[in-house]
Amino acid sequence: MQEMQLTDSEIERYSRHILLDEVGGTGQAKLAAARVLVVGAGGLGSPLALYLAAAGVGRIGLVDDDVVELSNLQRQVAHTTQRIGQPKVASAAEAAGAINPGVQLVAHRLRLDAGNVGGLISGYDIVCDGTDNFATRFLLADACHLHARPLVSAAVLRFEAQLSVFRSHLGPPHPCYRCLYPEPPPPGLVPSCAEAGVLGAVTGVAGTLQATEVLKLILGIGELLDQRLLIWDALGARFRTVRLARDPHCLLCGEHGTIRDLSAHGGAALARTPA
Ligand code: ZN
After folding, report:
1. Structural domain span for residue 143
2. How many whole angstroms separate alpha carbon 212 and alpha carbon 224?
3. What does the angle CA 106 – CA 108 – CA 109 come to, to the nearest 5 degrees?
4. How does 110-127 read in b/e, with b if 16+ C-beta sit within 10 Å?
5. Is the whole-model pTM more than 0.70?
6. Rounded CA gap, 251 and 270, in Å?
7. Residues 156-183 pLDDT 10s
8. Which of 11, 106, 220, 255 is the most buried (most CB within 10 A)?
9. How many domains does the chain have?
């Protein structure tokens, strides 16, 4: 068994992990070797980046093209009042790096598109969706299936959160995001947090649940939220999970699926151009 050479300070930092039979020194070495991409450095991405860094995940990529705004601070706890106006990826990297300078934080200040998504996710083992719009959500879901990357997905609105882990590249019975939502909703049908609001703490819990699924995935422990959708009604204080089945007629992962590249997202030619 390959053991990571932990320094005294690392043994102390990660002692509550190392105490767990399910983690130990071997698990801590797996965390150090893992590369996780967090798309969206907002309400979900904040707890994701902070907990993944605290846990010792070796490389954490952050994707966002926005700057910190005052209206973000009610929920996006990686940012600070002092950092208003700074790029969110730089602000989140600073917060996560202050918790754990031993992990590598890579700031990708860009908007995900069909031309850059493949190259970006290929450099990581696991992808987390912490975005707030359907265009990016579907692009990321398609790219993760086509590039064989697990997708740890969460969405929040008002007082509700939904979470799932998609590993459709492993084949049946694993569903993909499009088995659940075949197409983006018509513009304007589903409001965004900017339009309908969200209770800040709800994003914190949802992002922390995402971080937990990422750590389970890296460590290979427990039962993943795979083939299941977790729905949390915060007002009712109720969690429930529903079974997610693979759709044999799915456009992405179905046997006769028609989505074979990212051309539907307006960039197939771009996607094939070497960087
Ligand atoms: Zn599917």
Report:
1. 15-265
2. 10
3. 135
4. eebbbbbbbebbeebbbb
5. yes
6. 22
7. 999 999 999 999 999 999 999 999 999 9
8. 106
9. 1
Query: Which one of the listed residues 176, 179, 193, 253 is annotated catalytic?
Result: 193
Residue type (1 letter), 185? P
Average pLDDT of the residues of the chain:
93
What's the gap in Å between 171 CA and the centre of ligand 1? 10
In a domain, 5, yes or no: no
Residue 274 lies in a domain: no
Distance 97 CA to ligand 1 centre (A): 36
Give the CATH number of the domain where residue 120 resides.
3.40.50.720
Q: Known catalytic residue: 193?
A: yes
- Report the C-alpha gap between 254 and 244 in whole angstroms: 15
Distance (angstroms) between ligand 1 centre and the Cα of 192 equals 24
How far from each other are the two terminal CA atoms of the chain, in whole angstroms?
38
| Tokens, residue 271 | 């996607």
Q: Does residue 116 fall inside a structural domain?
A: yes
